[in-house]
Every structure is written in C-alpha cells, then in structure tokens.
Amino acid sequence: MTKKQLTLGHLAKNISIVIGLVLIWRGIWYVLDALDKWFFGGSHFWTALLGIIVGLVILYLPDHDLKEIEKL
C-alpha cells in the first residue's frame, strides 16, 4: 500500500475546489438576499423559516429520518 504524497499540485487543486464552492455559495446567498428584498421588503424572517423547512425536508426525504441532524 502506498501513501499519497502531498504535492503542490494536489494542494492547489484542493484549494481551487474550496474557493470555487465558497464563491458559488456566496452568489447563492446574494441572490437569496435580493429575493428577500424583492418579495418581502428585506425581512429575512419568512425566507429563513422557509429555508429551515425546506432543509429539513431535503434531509428527511432520502432515508425518511433526520439522523443527519444528530451528527451536529
């Protein structure tokens, strides 16, 4: 069994993946903030509540349980 070596290329690839994911979530966050302003006048309460409900449904649907939350 060989041990994977940490190379500069491997590190650069992983860092670029992380940066890409952060930028995607940053863009999604700004779009959702704009929708808050457009539909609810800047009040985050209803979209936050809806986000919690949708998140719970997404976690519940595959296994019909919420064991993923227990890991937190």
Explain the overall architecture.
The protein has 72 residues and is an all-alpha fold. The protein has one domain (8-70). Helices cover 74% and strands 0% of the residues. The chain is built from 3 helices and no strands. The protein has helices spanning 8-40, 45-60, 67-70. The radius of gyration is 19 Å and the shape is flat. The two termini are 34 Å apart. The model has no long low-confidence stretch (mean pLDDT 87).
Estimate the strand proportion.
under 5%
The major β-sheet equals:
none
Structural class: mainly alpha
Number of helices: 3
Number of strands: 0
Number of domains: 1
**Assembly state (oligomeric):** single chain
**Model regions low in confidence, pLDDT < 50 over at least 5 residues:** none
Choose one word for the global shape. flat
Task: Compose a concise summary of this entry.
This protein is an all-alpha fold and 72 residues long. The chain is 74% helix and 0% strand.
